[in-house]
Amino acid sequence: MAFLPDESRSLPPPPLFNKGSVWLGFVGWLAALADNAFNQRPVIRAGVHRQILFASVGFFVGYQLVKRAEYIHAKVDREMFEYIRHHPVDFHSPAG
Amino acid sequence: MAAGLRAVRRWGLVAAAPPRLGFTRSAFVVKKENNAQPNWLGVGLAFGTSAALWGFLIKQHDEDVVEYERRKRARGRKCTGCS
């Protein structure tokens, strides 16, 4: 299966700043800070271009992953509701 | 014999392990790094790539919103009982 099939575009796109993108962007930034630390550079003041690049890559990857996760969840929900629709006997509310 | 081997390793005559992280650099193996002068090519590539990534992301997001609205309108006219 493609990473994001065409039918995923029928779903509302997640907001740009969502849990996954913000968190992975933050993780990317931390990775740049760690790189500074390992190479004995000033941790936050050095390599700002690197910090921005790592954070951007993390943000981008996080956003794509969240989109795919929402698609998978929607697909599974659809299959579940279809199953419920086809087997109403199993899903009657308890009698009385 | 073990003592001799140990001495050989200490003198760097046997192939040393390649330097891994910044704090294991051996002057014989790695060129001198100069963090004082910016690597302008690297800086340009980093900023360029970041700008390209953000541009692509924002463009893709806007296109996704438009496409979703379009499909919602198309579907809305077709059936009203969809979940």
UniProtKB/TrEMBL annotation, chain A:
Belongs to the complex I NDUFC2 subunit family. It is found in: Mitochondrion inner membrane. One of its GO terms (biological process) is mitochondrial electron transport, NADH to ubiquinone. This is NDUCR dehydrogenase. Pfam families: NDUF_C2. Keywords: Electron transport, Membrane, Mitochondrion, Mitochondrion inner membrane, Respiratory chain, Transmembrane, Transmembrane helix, Transport. It is a single-pass membrane protein. Its main location: mitochondrion. It comes from Horornis vulcanius. One of its GO terms (cellular component) is mitochondrial inner membrane.
UniProtKB/TrEMBL annotation, chain B:
It is a single-pass membrane protein. The chain crosses the membrane at residues 40-58. It is found in: Mitochondrion inner membrane. The keyword Chloroplast does not apply. One of its GO terms (cellular component) is respiratory chain complex I. InterPro entries: NDUFC1. It comes from the Eukaryota. Its main location: mitochondrion. The keyword Transmembrane helix applies. It holds the Pfam family NADH_dh_m_C1. Keywords: Electron transport, Membrane, Mitochondrion, Mitochondrion inner membrane, Respiratory chain, Transit peptide, Transmembrane, Transmembrane helix, Transport. Accessory subunit of the mitochondrial membrane respiratory chain NADH dehydrogenase (Complex I), that is believed not to be involved in catalysis. Complex I functions in the transfer of electrons from NADH to the respiratory chain. The immediate electron acceptor for the enzyme is believed to be ubiquinone. Belongs to the complex I NDUFC1 subunit family. Complex I is composed of 45 different subunits. PANTHER family: NADH DEHYDROGENASE [UBIQUINONE] 1 SUBUNIT C1, MITOCHONDRIAL (PTHR17097:SF0), NADH-UBIQUINONE OXIDOREDUCTASE KFYI SUBUNIT (PTHR17097). This is NADH dehydrogenase [ubiquinone] 1 subunit C1, mitochondrial. It comes from Horornis vulcanius. The gene is Ndufc1.
